[in-house]
């Protein structure tokens, strides 16, 4: 791979025409120059540590990937970190996940430990946290059951208090009560933070968290009464041992009820302590954080791969008398890729704002104030749902835009897409999340009839003029116009769903049935709310950003593209609700086409700013130098199927028939066959 | 798995309330009772033949799946067929693919052999066909190159005529000219039907088909000058050896140019023979046939799984004072599943009509008449693109509607979805197909200004009143209204794109640039055209069908649901173009909700009519008896990760740290650790 191929030349030329400083944009995405430097240092250390390298994941079995992820994760945490002097609270930690690629203990580190901190007393934290933080116990958070997901009250596992022994007896009364799905549970964990119904003297007290040891500390064998294992192959997450756990008369000491919010005295007295709302805090936190790591980052990777590849893949003619063009010159291709690139930025800005809001909330919680929880819950649930939906759809669009090679694992795209699809389901199934967001919106819209609202729903009590006065496509690229349009559409969508339900109730339908029947309108309202939030916060963020004029121009264009793509993809709503006329819809399309044209020359520069190393991207199509075809060929040659020229396992079946063919073609006659 | 679980009871109850004869619907889908009987016989023979069984595909490596598919395919064709007395032209053949599940030689049987028949002289057919039909040679069709896909003129492989030796010398001049992707090529094929640029005395004569032997007939090793292998892992098709093929100075005899349409005389004289349009026939044929096998059938499987599972999966409350309900009772869930069920039927009816049209065309071709090719090409290209898009999206919607368990390979859904995604790319990338369809439509719309059109585009010259007079949601369930609406929308979409381009050209934009800039409108026009075709042909098919009244009612409802779901998902177009008012859009939504409600009680019966055996479905969620949870547990226990209680490979890394934890928890102190 020494010579400069035509593809490499094309990518060089693309980079020559970029109108802004890629490095400046990278710094903005990272936060500032210093953060970029820390991130690069971490990525560099990991890329250059031979123990952190792995074979091609696509050529490994699930079991090999699982063991390999375990090896690398433990090496990173227990060897590399201390060696580099990086501490768990240091600035390097947040870049580890990006650098390590496939790693494990996501639930142990991301849910089990935080839950100990949230639900445990100081004494419990003092006992369990140091062990967990140091990986001297491995734990997981066991809530979901084989037969029960989002509906918490439906969970069947019970913890019965045995006063005589001061123990809880844990049982899964039926097969459907078996814990199912928790990551790290199948083979790694020796403890679980188990959610179970607390029962004292036959009385139910609702869901509580219990620390349950499930494997022997010396042999790692399951303890008596514990049936535990891996739930089998999934669409992705090959390296994670999502598990099942069936508990029969497993006894744990009374002290293992995590007792920050409620406790059971030795005599069986049940005491509630503190604000029960704190129970929801950890779910909100997980959703807030997953947007950056599991939606924005993988979508940015997918866009990097697809844009670079589209800049070097030449196919077909635009002008019949000229040469073949890079597919990125096709407007249809730009229309697939650039709105997804724009989504990366706007989701990033909106997620930043949500993280800030969550941070402010956490400070308030410490003062005992949880009044912001309903808004934060609605926003984080809705945003997780809508952005995971947009992100997964976007990644699939760009994968498909890479044609046949996008279907090859060598592109790196199948891995990204299949993993992103999970974000639509885990940590709150999207439809459930959208309906919870909608419930908040309907309540607020009702309140807006009397009160002026503030915060993320302020626009529901904004009664200013509804009509859009845009007369040219240029008018429709104005940030203020785009924000207004999104607010109006969201308000109409919420009001429309609310009104429909009211009418049904007026006509005698029970409210819960009306809610069910109007579910798709409610989901639409939640989506509209989140889109206006993303557009609104992004516009504010960009306008307040201090950066070069050339960069501000690009970001403003990307923001307008995101907004216009939303409008054009949902123009039914905008027209039906009277936010746009048919003629204005036409202008909105023109405005989007115009932005595609303006952004085209900077496309490669924009994805370069995401600053993914080739080592992190793991893509033959997306590498920085554009040498796509030689890389694909080299990658293919390593496939296990190519270990030998003749694949003996399959050839044994084929050989007798092919030798018959030989005899005919070489005129040997059937009798001479081997 | 002996007891009747609550889930099994639920499915029994669903079946009690079905309002029509499931068997009658099955017969209609198969064609008639006799066809159903033949299909069941084939499925039965294969399900009960121990040699046709296989281990769980999800627990096998790609290499094992490849060898296993080879074994089973050859066994079926060479042992089972003759034993059962089934011949290659018998009625059983078309059901083999459905029954065998994972098989190989799709390209050998589906493209290589038909291409020999299409492009070969009688003499060539006599030589190659019997060998290929009998699997005594294995061939593939090698067109796509590493650097070149849909744009045929861009292909770089050349076949230079060597007069002295009466041979062609085949070369891939660059790495980008390497053949890439052909199925069965990597490890199985010993011949390829190679598409290459014919060169005689330095003059280029365009793409021609050559029979090229690539592997030794005795050893199966690649011949000198041949570099061949597998292209590596893909999103699906684990059992297929899609291959690469790099040819350097490979010589083949002059007779190996397939010469039905053109030949090269010994002295190098090039002669065109017959209608060159016949070249396109085989691509059309492949697209026509893949709709039934690769879109309708897998989508039907996915719907069967998701509907049955949704009928037994209980989660959450609709009425807060009642019990948990099956998720199929949620309108949001019905709105995800039932339109996909409807798509199965309408795509099936439309595909039937397309197959008939192709059959009629084939008869005309035999008389030398290829005048129907442009229409057939546009329709088959557009339909392949639009239905593969709808099908793949629909399968993913129903997969996601199964929540977490839909992400497990045990559901069978990841396998179906990932395979269906390929249909969007292979046999003509969808965007390219849609634009080819649009080019035909724009041409027809132009012609419609002067002439009355017939056939599938007749509506472009229909100038009757545009407005819809529907006043109730019932009006919008009328088949004739729905057909009209789709025709009007399609006509407007085609005209809109055409007018936009005309204006640009008038203002000085070159026509090819206008085409490029309006690509997304043209794609929209192609989609609109296909939707009207599917709705129109389905309405006609159902109205002409002789069947019981209860069944006709169901089919009419499904057809209306398909049409209304299209309208509501694209209502921007319908409103913008003045086909519907805002108020009518509201009615269209109500009409869709109403149909969901009407179809809900028959949902399980409808998917039962697809008549997939558990053996074919390979799904823990979709089995006929509804015993979802025990099946998932049994399936998970078989996972390779669960072979031992302690997964030693990974535990070796974890053990030292866990033993530290043990020492702390058991109070041994750090010094006593193992």
Structural notes for this entry:
- Two copies of one chain form a homodimer.
- Chain A is 54% helix and 8% strand.
- Chain A is α+β, with helices and mostly antiparallel strands and 674 residues long.
- In chain A, the strands form three sheets. In chain A, strands 1, 2, 3, 5, 6 and 9 form a six-stranded mixed sheet that branches. In chain A, strands 4-8-7 form a three-stranded antiparallel sheet, with no helix packed on it.
- In chain A, a hairpin with a 5-residue loop joins β10 (262-264) and β11.
- In chain A, α8 packs parallel to α10 (373-401).
- Chains A and B meet through α4, α9, α11, α12 and α13 of A and α4, α9, α11, α12 and α13 of B.
Secondary structure layout:
2 copies of one chain form a homodimer.
Chain A: H1 6-16, H2 22-30, H3 33-47, H4 62-84, H5 96-100, H6 106-119, H7 122-133, E1 139-142, E2 158-162, E3 167-171, E4 179-180, E5 191-200, E6 203-213, E7 226-230, E8 243-247, E9 250-253, E10 262-264, E11 270-272, H8 278-312, H9 331-366, H10 373-401, H11 403-407, H12 413-422, H13 430-447, H14 479-506, H15 511-517, H16 519-544, H17 549-569, H18 571-576, H19 582-599, H20 603-608, H21 614-617, H22 628-637, H23 648-665
Parallel strand pairs in A: 1-5, 2-5
Antiparallel strand pairs in A: 2-3, 3-9, 4-8, 5-6, 7-8, 10-11
Helix pairs in contact in A: 2-3, 6-7, 6-8, 8-9, 8-10, 8-12, 9-10, 9-16, 9-17, 9-19, 10-12, 10-13, 10-16, 13-14, 13-16, 14-15, 14-16, 14-17, 16-17, 17-19
